[in-house]
Design a protein that fits this description.
Helices cover 54% and strands 14% of the residues. By secondary structure, it is an alpha+beta fold. Strand 1 and strand 2 form a beta hairpin. 12% of the residues are buried.
């Protein structure tokens, strides 16, 4: 029996399922402020995604603070407390080995905002040219510049 290699395709169903379960457990732990770390208990933290490696030995946890404030304080505190956080959730997740947690700032919100600004600029640019197109449509409706209209006169 041969194994399928998933190097080109995305993560497996199991990786996604484990990542989602870890995301829920870490978010619950942080929202209940059970970390007992002052830097983490004073700020609201959103866990947006947990990406698990194919061998389930590492997990990248993407977080964002409310308003993006205090990330320079929260990320080192979370990475320093990663072993304690892993120990706190190891009994709730059904894995042979708990993945090593590594926390990163989630930049997808910033990227989405940049893309939205680009689309807004494009829409404003198109709105500037909209009256010109309407004038040409109106001219066609009036028959100005129409060959058949010129021949029939």
């Amino acid at each position: 029996m041969t194994r399928k290699h998933r190097s080109v395709s995305g993560p497996s169903q199991r990786q996604l399922r484990v990542g989602e379960e870890l995301r829920h457990l870490i978010a619950a732990l942080l929202s209940r402020q059970e970390t007992h770390i002052p830097e983490l208990d004073t700020v609201s933290i959103t866990v947006s995604e947990v990406s698990v490696s194919p061998d389930f030995s590492n997990a990248s946890v993407y977080i964002m603070t409310l308003g993006g404030n205090m990330l320079d304080v929260v990320l080192p505190a979370l990475n320093g407390a990663a072993p304690q956080l892993g120990h706190a959730i190891v009994g709730k997740v059904h894995l042979r080995r708990m993945p090593k947690l590594k926390f990163f700032a989630d930049t997808s919100y910033e990227n989405a905002a940049k893309i939205s600004r680009v689309f807004a600029t494009i829409n404003q640019h198109n709105d500037l040219y909209q009256p010109l197109k309407a004038d040409t449509d109106r001219a066609r409706d009036d028959g100005v510049g129409d060959k058949e209209h010129d021949q029939s006169s």
